[in-house]
Every structure is written in C-alpha cells, then in structure tokens.
Amino acid sequence: MILDSTFLVDFERERKRRKPGAACAFLRAHADDPFCITFTIAGELGAGQSLGVDRAKWYRFIQSFRILESSPDVAWEFGQAYRHLQSQGTLIGANDLWIGATGLAYGLPVVTRNAREFGRIPGLEVLSY
Question: What is the model's pTM?
Fold first, then answer.
C-alpha cells in the first residue's frame, strides 16, 4: 500500500498528541501489510515544516518505508491519467497525479483521506481511513 502524505501527516499528529485516531486504527488493522511511499511523497515530507527542517530526522522517517521510484511505467501511467483527467476537465494536482500513477504502475492502492481527488484516476484503487 502507498501511504499518501495526508495519511502520514495525520499519523504524525496522532502520535505527537498521544491520541490515536483514524490513521493509527488503519495501521493496526493492516499491521501485516507492507507500506510504501513514492518519491514525490518523500519530497513533500522534505518540504514540510515537521520533517523538512532536519535532514537526518526526515531520512530516519522515510527509510522505514519502501520508496517507490519513478520509471517509464510510472511516466506512462502519469501521461494516460493526465490526458484522461484533462479531457474530462477534472485535473488534480501534479503531485497527487504522480502518486496515483505510481500506484497504477506498481499495482498498489493509495491510502488517503483525499479519496475524492485520487478517485478520479481511472483504475486506481483508493483506500480511505
């Protein structure tokens, strides 16, 4: 499963507040599943206020996940999804489109609370929490 940045931000907030919520419950329910992030999510985390100010802290956090890299298949899926969404007048943000394309190329669902946007990508399995 690919954990979207919205999920990771929610999980981090729940941990800091010591108040488990939907993200913690999702992880408990899927404890045996492997979790991944995309190269774009790693970049989003690096740009964020919490992890982006300390490279060592950022690296420790992201290395606990398999990082899915870009590939020709990811680029193809991005292009196909972009063309489809553009023709429908329903484009989503570029980072979310790259995350969705990565999910399609690797055959993995995306875990997010932003199911409305990710759900626009044809063929992408989206899991809400």
Answer: 0.91
